[in-house]
Each structure stands twice: as C-alpha cells, then as structure tokens.
Amino acid sequence: MNIPLNDSVDLDVIMRVDNLPSKGRRLKIQASEAQCSKIAKHLKIDGLEKFYAKLLAKPIKSGFIVSGELKATISQQSVVTFKPVIQHIEEDLKRLFLQGNRDETHNGVGSESFIDLEGGDLPDYYNETEIDFSNYLLEVLALAIDLFPKNAGEKIELAKSDYENEKPSPFAKLKNLKLN
C-alpha cells in the first residue's frame, strides 16, 4: 500500500544512503504538533497526539535494510457510540531497499529467484542518493490503525430481521418432500 503524500505533509525523514557506514546510519523523527495535525487530516482520523520513529539503515550487498520502531497515539470516533477512542500504536519497522529499478530485476530464462513467502514485504527499489522515508512511515501507521475502533465493553449488536416472522415460501414446503 503506497499512500501518496500530500505536499503539505512534510516529515523531513530524508537520509543519505549512497555511502552508508558499515554500522549503519540512524535517524530519529519526532513530529511537531503542526505535522501531527497534517498527518491526521491526511489519514482522515480525528487526531494524532504523538508520532515518533527511530530508523537504522544498514548496508547490504545490493542495497540496504531499514529497521526500527514507530510509536504513535491516535484518536478516532467509536463506531458504536461515536465517543473518542484512543489507540496507542507500536510497530516494528523492517524493509529491504535494493538499488536499481524493479524492471531491471527480471531474470532471464532458466535463472532462479528466491522469494521468502513467510518473510516481510517485497523489496522497494531506489536510484537516488537520498531517500525520503515519509511515505514508508505513513504507510506503516495507516496499516496499524483500527478500522472499526470501539472502547472497551462496547459491542455492535446486529439488527434483528423480520425474516423469522415471515411466512415460508411455497418452495420451502417442496424441500421437505421426499422422492421415492
């Protein structure tokens, strides 16, 4: 899922990745109140009280791996009572970035590719010397948001149908007949 950023959402999560040290390069992000407000509007939630992330980019043979954590506190309306629901989000981050284009990775006839089906997401590709991780972080946050928030103890009760009180159709009687 790639959520395109609105130009007004600027997290300033840019990291130079062309000459990563072997220990990796770290980046910490603490969104300001104004940035939190813009992110909340972008994600269509009532509020974002806290947005914090730590990233570590470590080089590998043909790219780099980003790992870290994302923490956020959001508020939304309950789908049951429309009262505010606070959700604390803590997500581990891990994404593989490979240098080049996705199209260039197509292997010729007879070659093999290893795809770890139990692993994480497919790799992202890059050609730049600097990468903005804003989209990645907002994607992780968006996927962690509860789509049907409700407070503890709230339950959604299904409306009862009048189906049980209806007269059976003429075909319902045929269902009970046995063929000899």
Give a quick precis of the structure.
The protein has 180 residues and is an alpha+beta fold. It has one domain. 16% of the residues lie in helices and 33% in strands.
What does this protein structure show overall?
The protein is of the alpha+beta class and 180 residues long. It has one domain (14-175). The chain contains three helices and seven strands. The chain has helices at 33-43, 134-144, 170-175; strands at 14-16, 25-30, 47-60, 63-77, 84-99, 124-126, 130-132. Strands 2-3-4-5-6 form a five-stranded mixed beta sheet. It has a two-stranded antiparallel sheet with strand order 1-7. A hairpin with a 6-residue loop joins strand 4 (63-77) and strand 5. The longest helix has 11 residues, at 33-43.
